[in-house]
Amino acid sequence: MSSMIEVRQLKKDFGSLSVLNQISFDVKPGEVVAVIGPSGSGKSTMLRSLVHLEEVTGGSISICGKALVEDGRYASTANIRDITSRMGMVFQHFNLFPHLSVRDNLELAPRTLKRESVQQITAKSRELLSKVGLSDKADVYPSTLSGGQKQRVAIARAMMLSPDILLFDEPTSALDPELTGEVLRVIRQLAEENMTMMIVTHEMSFARDVADRVFFMDNGDIAESGTPEEIFGSPKLERTRAFLMRE
Amino acid sequence: MDIDYIIRISGPMLEGARTTVLLFLIVIVLSIPLGMVVTLMAKSTLKPLAWIAHAYIYVMRGTPLLLQLFFFCFGLPQIPVIGEYLVMDRFVAASLGFILNYGAYFAEIFRGGLLSIDKGQHEAAKVLGLSRWQTLRKVILAQMFRVALPAVANESITLVKDTALLYAVAVPELLNFAKTAVNRDFTVTPFVVAGVIYLLMTLVLTLFFKLLEKRFKFE
């Protein structure tokens, strides 16, 4: 099968500042890509562009063979929603809905979009909560959860629409160090189930462990990419090496 | 103060309080949705719509409520040509003034509520495939009302007391009855009774909003 994500010459400017500088890459089905790099290198912007949270200035993005944006021209609103709905996203700050119980956080979107029956939706939310180890928290509000629990709920919520691709924007950066493990375990489990994922992360050992490929981004470019062994073992570029030394 | 007198005047005063409560209910029920609509207009990307909303809020907040009541009760009929069609029952005219005035205040309260909602909420809803309208209905408004609740409670209590302005446009209500009794009977007791009735009304409101806040604590 062809690429799940196909990005060509992606360009994003904020005024005169170029945040993404003609980025191109492919992500194959089942592949796990970790994106590392210093703050301000464009990692998050790149990820957010894929789900249309950022509007790009130029270039092309195709998801599962369908063009979200082609040479800077976006698809229609309906098509954009259709294409981006194949992706789930997990945010650094969880972005759970505070006015809804954990269960309702999971079920809000599927119940609103009505693609499945209510029975299917409730069965799925029960299954996913048990998968992330939070079956006993179905009826509580997010404010009562720890950061790690919140992020696991967020992952379950992102899985409710059975996405083909999961995107993680620094999923553990807002967590206390002792809580990152439980979140990384869930992500690792998804990787073992061949979920296609892109993970922007500062957890180097996790990236090394779970990724099939690593992108090192710097100044709006993918400066270097390769297997974890290549990037962490013998980086070609001096700036990659300098970054890894700092981390 | 003797008890018999208090009981004797309480009947007509409660009669007056009925007008007070009626005005309160009409204004609350209509001005909150109005405030909601004005808030959304103020946030609209259609510039003229936003401009109208801001101008409306500015005028209603920037002039005395009493002036607005005078305008609706006594001013409108004076307008040349169309004035004669604008003669309304004074209670209706006053209600209109109250609704428009409180609508502007509620609009500002809701706007503050909207500002407090993190943009991550919009982003999460968008990525989950909700349309802007679905996001507004299912994610934003509920949180906005929760944030706005204490200010809405405060505004409602102010409204109970502002109903006394009906006195100035000669619509008989609680304060009107009290004043009449004071003048007639040469005693301050009716004012005290009126005060107690106002306190009872605000007590009910306070308890009601406490209950709402507890119900929507999301914990």
From TrEMBL, chain A:
Which superkingdom is the protein from? Bacteria
Where in this chain does the record put each ABC transporter domain? 5-244
The record's section on InterPro entries has: AAA+_ATPase, ABC_ATPase_HisP-typ, ABC_transporter-like_ATP-bd, ABC_transporter-like_CS, MetN_ABC_transporter-like, P-loop_NTPase
Q: Which residues cross the membrane?
A: none
Q: Name one GO molecular function term.
A: ATP binding
Signal as a keyword of this entry, yes or no, is no
Q: Which UniProt keywords apply?
A: ATP-binding, Nucleotide-binding, Transport
User: Pfam family example for this protein?
Assistant: ABC_tran
Q: Which family does it belong to?
A: Belongs to the ABC transporter superfamily.
Q: Cross-referenced PANTHER family, in alphabetical order? A: AMINO ACID IMPORT ATP-BINDING PROTEIN (PTHR43166), PHOSPHONATES IMPORT ATP-BINDING PROTEIN PHNC (PTHR43166:SF4)
Record's protein name: Polar amino acid transport system ATP-binding protein
The organism named in the record is Paenibacillus silagei
TrEMBL record, chain B:
Any idea where this protein resides? Cell membrane
Please list the residue ranges annotated as the ABC transmembrane type-1 domain.
17-209
Traced from the root, the source organism's taxonomic lineage reads: Bacteria, Bacillati, Bacillota, Bacilli, Bacillales
Q: Which Gene3D superfamilies match?
A: MetI-like
Q: Which domain of life is it from?
A: Bacteria
NCBIfam families from the xrefs?
Answer: HEQRo_perm_3TM
Give the way it sits in the membrane: Multi-pass membrane protein
Query: What's the family?
Result: Belongs to the binding-protein-dependent transport system permease family.
**What name has this protein been given in UniProt?**
Polar amino acid transport system permease protein
In terms of one coarse class, where is the protein primarily found? membrane
Q: Where are the transmembrane segments?
A: 21-43, 55-76, 88-107, 191-212
Q: Which UniProt keywords apply?
A: Amino-acid transport, Cell membrane, Membrane, Transmembrane, Transmembrane helix, Transport
Q: Which SUPFAM superfamilies match?
A: MetI-like
